[in-house]
UniProtKB/TrEMBL annotation:
InterPro entries: ArAA_b-elim_lyase/Thr_aldolase, PyrdxlP-dep_Trfase, PyrdxlP-dep_Trfase_major, PyrdxlP-dep_Trfase_small. The keyword Nucleotide-binding does not apply. Keywords: Pyridoxal phosphate. The lineage of its organism: Bacteria, Bacillati, Actinomycetota, Actinomycetes, Micromonosporales. It comes from the Bacteria. It holds the Pfam family Beta_elim_lyase. It comes from Actinoplanes campanulatus. This is Threonine aldolase. GO terms for cellular component: cytosol.
Length: 370
């Protein structure tokens, strides 16, 4: 996306009185001001670890119920280390990955290019692999990756029983289990278990701080003491052992305080929003109802037209609907991802339906002009 369009979207969203999908972008000054509410800024910063970084690592380890946790600058780096660890410990240079998983779609195959591992498809279905599919893998793997939720299939989750069976099957074939838990925080309501119970099914878990929690950046890889000792070594080798990360650590801690308790409410309200959007003419929602506070939404218009109409409504009427439309595989449709966060809680189902109708009116006017 061109920088000019990104800037236009951010400017329009910041000026809106009401936001249906997502959260209002913060300025750098607002980010810094938020840190002042998270901790005493008169304390000393971290020095290659320690300080607020250690506080964050210990807090996440306690939340997940793991022996330890390691802060990484990016999830891409953390996930490479998790897969490398499994391959070296088990002597099998292959991992079971979903073709829609983050490592395949959004990390430029870093696990293969930098670590030399091979990716074995765990399934081609738009969901995480089942126990039967894991048992039927064509060759041995050191790690089975399960993404909770599977974002590029529509933020979909297995049932608790399916997840338990899949992790048992992975260990039955001699593999480790790694949870790509960038959004694991919002998976708990659908699975009906605590974060600790979910994480206990895996040998390693990666979590993100800027997704959902609203942190500046950063991720944690959590697991056994042996894993985290290995992870600290490889974090340094990959260039991720940074001199100071206190802004990242403090913003993550603030997100855990502020957003984590509200996630069940977000997930519940996403179902209200999705139900209202699904009633619009030609609209499609997946999954229905949503498994988390995010879901996919389709309308029968070109993406360029939708993006322009949505921005026009934001700039002229002060209402943000949902941005980032892209042309879908279904001819004539475009798709976006809807995120029900704090601002969405202000919307009733009737208001969602009304603003959807207003957007359709703008779209029809634009279509008639062209």
């Amino acid at each position: 996306m061109p920088d000019s369009l990104i800037q236009r979207r951010q400017t329009a969203m910041r000026a809106c009185d009401r936001i249906l999908s997502g959260v209002r972008p913060l300025t750098m000054r607002e980010h810094v001001a938020a840190l002042e509410t998270a901790a005493d800024l008169d304390g000393l910063p971290d020095f290659y670890g320690g300080g607020p970084v250690t506080v964050l690592e210990k807090r996440v380890a306690a939340l997940l119920g793991t022996q330890d946790a390691v802060l990484f600058p990016t999830g891409t780096m953390a996930q490479q280390v998790a897969l490398r660890y499994g391959a070296e410990r088990l002597g099998v240079p292959a991992a079971a990955l979903h073709p829609l998983g983050h490592q395949e779609v959004h990390e430029r195959h870093a696990y293969a290019e930098l670590t030399g591992l091979r990716g074995i498809r765990s399934t081609t279905a738009p969901r995480n692999p089942t126990a039967a599919e894991i048992v039927s893998l064509a060759e041995p793997v050191s790690t089975v990756v399960i993404e909770l939720p599977l974002r590029d299939a529509g933020f979909v989750l297995p049932t608790w029983r399916e997840l338990v069976e899949a992790t048992k099957a992975a260990r039955g074939i001699g593999a480790r289990v790694h949870f790509d838990g960038a959004r694991i925080w919002e998976s708990a309501p659908y699975l009906g278990r605590s974060i600790r119970e979910i994480a206990a099914l895996a040998d390693s878990v990666y979590v993100s701080f800027y997704k959902t929690l609203g942190g500046m950046s950063g991720a944690v890889l959590a697991g056994t003491a042996d894993l985290t000792e290995y992870a600290r070594t490889w974090r340094h080798r990959y260039g991720g052992h940074l001199f100071q990360q206190w802004p990242v650590a403090l913003s993550a801690l603030a997100g855990l305080d502020r957003e984590l308790p509200r996630i069940p409410e977000y997930v519940a309200h996403a179902r209200v929003i999705a139900g209202a959007l699904a009633t619009l003419p030609g609209a499609r929602v997946h999954p229905e109802p949503p498994h988390t506070h995010q879901f996919r939404f389709w309308l029968p218009y070109p993406a360029a037209v939708l993006n322009e109409a949505m921005l026009t409504m934001a700039e002229k009427e002060g209402v943000w609907f949902a941005g980032g439309w892209s042309d879908a595989d279904v001819p004539g449709y475009a798709m976006t991802e809807v995120t029900a966060a704090g601002p969405a809680l202000e919307w009733t189902a009737a208001e969602v339906g009304a603003i959807g109708v207003r957007l359709l009116d703008l779209l029809n006017q634009e279509t008639q002009r062209t």
